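Support request, priority: normal
Reporter: lab tech (M.K.)
Component: structure prediction queue

Hi team, I submitted a job for Large ribosomal subunit protein bL28 from Blautia liquoris yesterday, and the status page still shows it as pending. I've pasted the exact input below so you can check whether something in the sequence is tripping the parser. The sequence length should be 61 residues. Please let me know if I need to resubmit or if it's stuck on your end.
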Amino acid sequence: MAKCAVCGKGAHFGNNVSHSHRRSNKMWKSNVKSVKAKVNGVPQRMYVCTSCLKSGKVERA
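Reply from support: The job had stalled in the queue. We restarted it manually and it finished. Here are the results:
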């Protein structure tokens, strides 16, 4: 699973709890996209989460 290159956000793990309180494994995947971004003026492909894209922390190439 990819991680955000800016904030490090990745997948989270926990339990699915049913009505009868039986537990099974669950995985929450973060919304990470592969984008072309400028790093030191050079376009580079990297994984960035959509919250970093929306907040303007990444300048797209």
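Residues 12-55 form one domain. The helical segments are 50-55. Let us know if anything else looks off. Ticket resolved.
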